[in-house]
Amino acid sequence: MKRLISILTTGLFLLCFVLPSNVLAFDDIRGHWAEHDILRMNAVGIIEGDGEGYFFPNVSLSRQETLAMILRLVGLDDEADTANVPSSSTTFSPNNAAEWAKGYLYVSMQEGIIDSSDVRISNWRGPVERQEVAIWLSKALKLPPVSNYHSSLVQFEDGGQIAVQKAPYIAPLINDRVIVGADGYFKPRDAIMRGEMAALLNRVDGRYTERSTISPPSYGQDPFFGGLPTDGIYDPAPSTPSNTVYLTGEFYDIDFENDTLEIIKRGNYLKLDLATNYLSQFGVNYSWQLPYRFGDDVEVQLINGYVTYIDVIDRYDRDRDDYRDGDIVVYKGDISSVDSSRDRIELRSGSVEYIDGTRWRSESGSKTMDVASRADIYKDERDISLRSLRRGDTVYVAYDEHRREAVQIRTRDGSETTESSDIRTLNTSRQTFSLSNSTRTYDYDDCAIVVHNGELLDIDDLRRDDDVYLVADRINWPSDFNAAVVIIDPRRSDRGYGDDYIVYRAELDDVYTRSDEIRLTDVDYWSGSRWRSQSSRETLYVERRAEIYCCGSEIDLYDLSDDHIDDTVYVLYDEYNDEVVKIRVLEDSRRFISNEEVYEVNRSDFRLDNRNRDRIRFDDCTIVMLGDRWVDIDDLLEGDIVYVEVDRVNGIDYAAVIFID
Predict the structure, then answer these.
(1) 601, part of any domain
(2) Which PROSITE patterns match (predicted)?
């Protein structure tokens, strides 16, 4: 009986032609975060659409559909299709299963993926739980259960909700980073969406299963392409065959080792295979030789599923004043049309309003908005594609007036209510807050649009005592208020956003895991242009969600206590809330680079001074400061004057902390 899938060369040859047609066939996945996963899993026959051009990535899966996908993944679908299923027996009596699914249930029971009680009790047409998917996958892949599963479950805030009898089977998938959760939660009892399942299966495929592979077509040798262009990678193909697809997005990076292009499409990363020798034929061997940079808007042509040229549509504006100015205005209106081919929406005339201070003001006429390729779009508290928006939807839009594009869209899912007050309580673990002038409790999540002084923030940047204008969605009457838009009033807030952070450099003296505290000795702090001595000893509270890094991996306070006492650490401290939000352990030797200009910035490294070819890498571990502001690594721009502390590990330079002048 088959255990692993083996695709014949003929089938893989057909795959090269299937991928582009699928991009067109599924009308509801273009721009979806799992678009690449869906296309690949469909191309190899593991998942299917409805036969009419739709995949429904944001619709939940039934249990019987899930088992069918898993059996196809591990090569048991032939056995399921031809199984001699008993018509009635005490050991096999499926509850509410479709006729086509009974063979899959029967083979799953024989293989030990499910047992007879599962068959008899479960509602097979009902939505499958995330923990059920995980345990079925683990058993289908014959992964040995992990007896000491507690260290795996603690990675998730809700790991304790995973059923004890299922945990040993789920732990191997967590340990192998196949199950990664979302925002620190596993949500074991939640339903899994079709798009989520495609992404999960794509992560599993290739890690535990084996597939034959063939090389992509060489650039210029594809019979559908018609020869090499005359002017290199900017020239379009001389003809447009029927198996050609065009995608637009923001250039992210090129992986020279694996010959793949990565672009950002509405905040999601798409990895596309390059045609053989695509870059080397033009002498492009290093990222600084590329004619495009991170953030450039590009159009990509794919023939038979492989990238054959990349064209820059619009250069990314790297001027600091334009990039960092606050230009976000929040609009509201009813959608009159959605043009997903042009990434554009139109709000109906008479419905358009914008927030001015603490009130909505009407704007005459309709409003047409381009939607940024990396924009976040939410509906019913889920991330969706632009195509999933519908005419008549009422939406809140964070609109960048400088770039003239929508950067975040959220549908109004209930009735609207507004409040103006300061935040009285803020519960980050439950993701709720309350206001001083109201007894209501408001839920919040990543769907909320948060703006301070024209700058789009993350919902986690809310602080106690912030004076806010709140627009809430009243989902279920009479309670359940969800924050849709939060405008932080800069005139009456006690601080400017991001200006309350300080970086310490010290020796780690002790860790108190019960009280979530660390004790530091030989403490220095960064003051404008140099380190200054703070004190001989400091004890600091570590915020529950604080990021702690060592050796490129995230660790917890227990790891810090066990392995890193007396190590040098960099500590990012929030003075306003009196808590540590980030810790980076110095891994090896340290060196300093002072008052150097940033010559080039790429996805994962940067270079100082055009005479110096040495590259300094950065990652999530790197602490980046702009003056007194804690900023993202994306705020590091060409032309910046920086002070960098470099952690040299195994001969490779990593930026531990970057101070932008």
Answers:
(1) yes
(2) SLH
**How many domains, the chain?**
5
| CA atoms of 129 and 152, how far apart (whole Å) | 19
Neighbours of 395 (CB within 10 A): 23
* Same domain (yes/no): 183, 308: no
Nearest 10 degrees: Cα torsion 253, 257, 259, 262 = -20
d(CA 563, CA 556): 11
Q: How far apart are CA 264 and CA 196, in angstroms?
A: 18
Host H or E run for residue 24: helix 9-25
Give 313 or 76, the one with higher predicted confidence: 76
Cβ 275 vs Cβ 281: under 8 Å? no
Based on the fold, state whether residues 90 and 189 are members of the same structural domain: yes
Q: Is 339 helix (H, G, I), strand (E, B) or coil?
A: strand
pLDDT, tens digit (0-9, with 9 covering 90-100), for 467-504: 889 998 876 555 578 898 998 876 554 443 345 788 99
**Alpha-carbon gap, residue 329 to 599, rounded angstroms:** 33
Q: Is residue 651 part of a domain?
A: yes
Range of the structural domain that residue 264 is part of: 232-314
Does 43 map to a domain? yes
- With bands split at pLDDT 50, 70 and 90, how would you rate the model's confidence at 69? very high
pTM of the model: 0.37
Percent of the chain with pLDDT over 90: 12
Q: Are 258 and 215 a contacting pair, CB within 8 Å?
A: no
Domain C-terminal end among 186, 204, 222: 204
Q: Is the dihedral of CA 250, 254, 258, 259 positive or negative?
A: positive
Which residue blocks in 490-599 are alpha helix, DSSP H? Answer: 557-563
Helix/strand/coil (H, E, C) string of 258-327?
CCEEEEEECCEEEEEEECECCCHHHCCCCHHHCCCCCCCEEEEEEECCEEEEEEEEECCCCCHHHHHCCC
Tell me, yes or no, whether 72 lies in a domain.
Answer: yes
For residue 276, the model assigns a pLDDT of 64
**Whether 534 and 517 share a structural domain:** yes
Same domain (yes/no): 108, 239: no
Cα 167 to chain centroid, rounded = 25
> Do both 452 and 535 map to the same domain?
no
For 189-213, give one letter per residue: b (16+ CB within 10 A) or e: ebbbbbbbbbbbbbbbbeebbeeee
Cis peptide leading into 216, omega within 30 of 0?
no
- Reported residue count of the chain is 661
